[in-house]
Amino acid sequence: MAKKNIDLAVVLHDDCDYKDWLVELKERFYSHRLKASCATNGYLLDFYWKLGRDIEAKQYTNTYGSGFYKNLSQDLKNEMPGVKGFSPTNLKYMSYFYKLYAPLQANCPQLADNFIEDLYIADIQRVVAQNENRPQTADDFKLLFLIPWDHHRRIIDKCKGNMDKALFFVRKTWENNWGRDVLLNWLDTDLYERDGKAITNFQATLPAVQSDLAQQITKDPYQLDFLNLREKYDEHDIEEELVNNVTRFLLELGKGFSYMGRQFRLEVGQQEFFPDLLFYNAHLHAYVVIELKAQSFHPSFLGQLSFYVSAINHQFKTDIDNPTIGLLICKDKDNVVAKYALDSYKEPMGISEYQLSKLFPKDFKSSMPTIEELEKGLKDNRE
């Protein structure tokens, strides 16, 4: 830690290693900025990554304390007038960025330099697509250079040093092309803890690849806080609200879902049946039947859902479609009971809970007048 009676700026400027590093940073920055038009965001992030790496390696913060960032910021601005991005706060984020993901590079030490050099001679999409047999660590490291820096700052803030959680949001941002506002929305939920967590029998009922994909599209619980429900609601109320807010529900379900219909009519024998909601998932190439229950899970619920899944398979599934999946979303569940109940079914099904954030009293009345009340008021005034 720097002593109070020492002028840190003077000490640093007398440090030959520090001065050489400043010159190197200046040259490196201008080199990267020149090439940035070829690989957009990647070169800037590469510069930030390596600057963060240098800060950690040189240990200036341990020697001079937190005031080091302020001095480095001013020196970089002096060396490169008009260049933005070197505020003390942003420099700290570069250090956090490197420290958070450093374990990825530790497993593949040549990966950072190789990937960025590839960007110099090729477009991002091709670099990401090639070497598909590379380990997951390599793929994850590549993605770090493909999302905006501001997104990284938001992820760093919310993930608090949890690399796995941070990588989860990096992947989701890239896969779904999330803008900043959408990312912030998901960061404020517990998506990481919920994603792929439904109780299912997919491993026993689907081929390995499809069972993994099917598991990934589930959540537990589903956040339905966008629904406006009164106390003592039932399944019909939930269903109606979900249809009224189908765009929000599709966002909660995740990428690849298309809405097919509500109370989808099925003719089986001489009878008619109506599943609550029917979707198609383009990534799974499969229909997804969703049944809603405004009560705790009971094993008997699966019999109805299993029947709907079988009926969709027989009547709508084509040769290019994968087996239909059933998803039961209920108020709450006992996970052990849910697992035991699923064991006796050959149809692929999952069980999740839902969460609501607000309920209106049963006799709740909006403070806004209805159209009829407005018309009556105008008529009374005229009279």
Describe the structure.
Helix 19 links the parallel strand 9 (325-332) and strand 10 (349-355). The protein is an alpha/beta fold. The longest helix has 24 residues, at 16-39. It has 2 domains: 8-146, no CATH class; 194-360, Trna Endonuclease, Chain: A, domain 1, CATH 3.40.1350.10. The relative contact order is 0.07. The chain has 20 helices and 11 strands. Strands 1, 2, 4, 7, 8, 9 and 10 form a 7-stranded mixed sheet that branches. A two-stranded parallel ribbon has the order 3-11. Strands 5-6 form a two-stranded antiparallel ribbon.
CATH topology of the largest domain: Trna Endonuclease, Chain: A, domain 1
The major sheet is characterized as: 7 strands, mixed
Mean pLDDT: 83
Radius of gyration: 28 Å
- Residue stretches low in confidence (pLDDT < 50, at least 5 long) are 120-128, 130-135, 364-368
CATH architecture of the largest domain: 3-Layer(aba) Sandwich
Oligomeric category:
single chain
Supply the CATH class of the largest domain.
Answer: Alpha Beta
